[in-house]
Amino acid sequence: MKQILIFVLFAALMCWLMFSPIYKHVLIVRQAVLQQEVDYLLEIGASGTYGYISEDMQEQSRQRLARFGMRPDDIIFELAATSGLAASNPNAPLLRGTGISLTMSYPYEDLFEIDRLIGLTPPLPNERMRAFGMKMSEYVP
Fold first, then answer.
1. Could you tell me the residue ranges of all domains in the chain?
2. Nearest 5°: phi and psi at 63?
3. Which of 34, 49, 81, 96 is an S-S bond match for 87, by CB 3.0 to 4.6 Å?
4. Phi, psi of 82 (to 5 degrees)
């Protein structure tokens, strides 16, 4: 009986050890891709050409992230400007010196479910990974 118990515990531990690095790499890649996309949108949106991050830019970003296996509908953008104006209005770009902040978030999905095998509690379904960035607008009319 002890041998069966030891085998079951050992098998569960081996499964966790084999699959644990895989989902952690997925998590790290998703976080890195989100941060890269935030940096890219801020670089383009705060440039002297635009001064905003429009809905079209956000949709293009969703499509780029979909190529990495993310569900576009689950990506949430939060835009703000230090002046309090809308940072997504192409008809009123933010002038030079105004800060544009962008936060993107995406759910963890079920990446941590395997942690239940060793007694860890995975994140709640409504918890999300986030990437944040801020850049000053360079737009001059």
1. 18-136
2. -70, -35
3. 81
4. -65, -20
- List, for residues 7-40, the tens digit of each pLDDT value: 888 887 777 777 666 667 788 889 999 999 999 9
Residue 89 tokens read as: 């209005």
Question: Residue 98 CB: number of other CB atoms within 10 A?
Answer: 19
Q: Write the pLDDT tens digit of every residue in 74-122.
A: 999 999 999 999 999 999 999 999 999 999 999 988 777 777 777 778 7
- The full 3-state SS of the chain, as one line of letters, equals CHHHHHHHHHHHHHHHHHHHHHHHHHHHHHHHHHHHHHHHHHHHHCCCCCCCCCHHHHHHHHHHHHCCCCCHHHCEEEEEECCCCCCCCCCCCCCCCCEEEEEEEEECCCCCHHHHHHCCCCCCCCCEEEEEEEEECCCCC
Taking alpha carbons only, the member of 103, 79, 73 closest to residue 93 is 79
Long-range contacts of 119-124 (CB under 8 A, 24+ apart): none
With tokens 């544009």, the residue in question is: 100
Q: What is the pLDDT of residues 50-80, one digit of tens each?
A: 999 999 999 999 999 999 989 999 999 999 9
